[in-house]
């Protein structure tokens, strides 16, 4: 079983199994609805977060973290992982002028290298009924 997590900028945060990530992303999707975060939630699950969406995602994550109930503490590492990758993506872009997007990725070697090097056009070409790369 492959481990998955978040990738962004020069950071890679391993968080657990694909089924655990699906559980988190389901939680995140429900919680982000009130912030009009449906598009961001869908992009996080299926593709990658665009540069211009980072600030909104950061705001949503901070708000969700503040509102976590004790039985939702299991999602704190996921939310913190997103924050780490947002910050890393911003620093990388500001330092080098290259956007290394925030996305869900396989974190096991050598698979994470494929996810890191996969052109964004391949993500953009994914159809609505295709599995995201991290679930393949």
Widest β-sheet, arrangement of strands = 2-1-3
Percent helix, as a range, is: 40-55%
Extract low-pLDDT stretches.
none
Judged by helices, strands and strand pairing, the structural class is alpha+beta
Q: Report the average pLDDT across residues.
A: 96
Please give the alpha-carbon distance between the first and last residues: 11 Å
Structural overview:
Strand 1 and strand 2 (11-17) form a beta hairpin. This protein has helices spanning 18-32, 38-46, 54-66, 76-96, 111-117, 120-124; strands spanning 3-8, 11-17, 103-106. It has 136 residues and is of the alpha+beta class. The longest helix is centred in the middle third of the chain and has 21 residues, at 76-96. Helix 1 (18-32) packs antiparallel against helix 2 (38-46) and helix 3 (54-66) packs antiparallel against helix 4. The chain has six helices and three strands; from the N terminus they run ββααααβαα. It is globular and about 35 Å long.
Q: Which features characterize this protein?
A:
3 strands; alpha+beta; 51% helix; 6 helices; 136 residues
Q: In a few lines, what is going on in this structure?
A:
The protein has helices spanning 18-32, 38-46, 54-66, 76-96, 111-117, 120-124; strands at residues 3-8, 11-17, 103-106. With 136 residues, the chain is of the alpha+beta class.
């Amino acid at each position: 079983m492959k481990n998955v997590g978040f990738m962004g900028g020069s950071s890679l945060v391993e968080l657990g199994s694909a089924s655990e990530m699906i559980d988190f992303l389901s939680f995140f999707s429900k919680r982000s609805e009130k912030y009009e975060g449906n598009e961001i939630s869908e992009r996080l699950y299926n593709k990658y977060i665009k540069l211009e969406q980072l600030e909104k995602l950061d705001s949503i994550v901070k708000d969700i973290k503040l509102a976590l109930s004790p039985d939702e503490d299991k999602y704190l590492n996921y939310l913190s992982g997103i924050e780490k990758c947002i910050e890393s993506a911003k620093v990388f872009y500001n330092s080098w002028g290259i956007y290394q997007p925030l996305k869900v990725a396989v974190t096991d070697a050598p698979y994470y290298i494929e996810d890191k090097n996969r052109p964004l056009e391949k993500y953009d070409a994914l159809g609505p009924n295709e599995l995201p790369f991290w679930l393949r």
